[in-house]
Description:
- Two copies of one chain form a homodimer.
- The first copy, chain A, is mainly alpha-helical.
- Chain A contains ten helices and no strands.
- Chains A and B meet through helix 6, helix 8, helix 9 and helix 10 of A and helix 6, helix 8, helix 9 and helix 10 of B.
Amino acid sequence: xxxxxxxVERILDTAEVLFAQKGFAETSxxxxxxxxxxxxxxxxxxxxxxxxLIQAVFERFLAxxxxxxxxxxxxxxxxxxxxxxxxxxxxxxxGIALTSQAQNPHRVALFFRLCGLAYTxxxxxxxxxxxxxxxxxxxRFLRLLNAAAPDVPPMELFWRVHFGLGATVxxxxxMDSLRAICKSDFGEELSVADVNQRLLPFIVGGIRADNAAS
Amino acid sequence: xxxxxxxVERILDTAEVLFAQKGFAETSxxxxxxxxxxxxxxxxxxxxxxxxLIQAVFERFLAxxxxxxxxxxxxxxxxxxxxxxxxxxxxxxxGIALTSQAQNPHRVALFFRLCGLAYTxxxxxxxxxxxxxxxxxxxRFLRLLNAAAPDVPPMELFWRVHFGLGATVxxxxxMDSLRAICKSDFGEELSVADVNQRLLPFIVGGIRADNAAS
DNA sequence: TGGCCATGCAAACATATGTTTCAAACGTGT
DNA sequence: ACACGTTTGAAACATATGTTTGCATGGCCA
Lengths: 214, 214
């Protein structure tokens, strides 16, 4: 958070933190504006409504991420001689998620936390918005995943990807408390990167699993 | 939902559905009472507050589940000749979750959905309540898991169990929207049981994964 | 029957929240 | 310096929500 930024940026900076901490409905505009040091009316003036604010928070995360991902997919699409492995694909998005928020790597955790909220909280408008704006890139990525795991049927893969997303979201949400428990139970203090390193094999193993289900 | 039940039951029946659908903060007491066909003041009269209502909803789910799980663990503790496999253990809780709500199997989805909300929504009082009342049973189950997956180092297992929990919670939380997407993208309408059948292999595969990642 | 207590009901209350209003302050180009 | 569009500020507004109150109702036991 820059010391002196424009009103819009200050609102967005504060809103994304509070939303991630408490959820959308639980975070009042007054909480945002007072913590951001701006006037209450500013958010309605600049964004129009609270719903629009929520969407703007997501757009600031997703726009750079998706353009970066799209560019990378383009690059890979041209040189389609060797399809990437699952590990490579997942590390790709992980890396892009990091680099697309280069200013502050910690925001990646917020990013995933907000993604989780987008699913779990009602917010029908949000899901519609996300689907309309960023559904294409996701589908494109899914197709690559499909090529990387040809043994897994497409629909099976669809679910497993979301299971993996859930594991990620949950890990990011409970990161702090989980790391504290880990330290008190095992005496090891893991970094966020350490947790991510453990997350990837889990997801890969889950996606790769023999599908005994019919 | 029984046609004619006492006021308390009607409130609980309606509240658990609405909470699972929209979240805690997003569900007003008026929405609950009007849909339940009871007076607004009834919830404060019978439960004391909205917070107490939320806890009562959880207790009605968790009390039978945890006593059943505890009894089963007791039974297994006596005959400890052959430790259960991972699949067996996970299916055990899955089965107990089902049978402990024998009256209506659909409630299991609600159960997990609510658990997800307990994590994602703020509700500090809820987490404290759950930890105090049902933390012991969970730890007991964790020890059994450790015996079932001796290849996986304890700390690795600790994280993977929580990754799996995250996948579960997330799947249940986003169940409806995910199933809708699945239907529109693949033309197949999955039941909740279908999703669970897909979830288990994913978790087992994730927990079992080779931790070769460097 | 008559008192009694748990329950049900409608209304009021206090508060929090999203939104709107309108005037003041600010910046910019002439 | 002046005028004009943009942004900020404090207050008001309308509404929704959790909670409380006071009284009516109904069953149960002496």
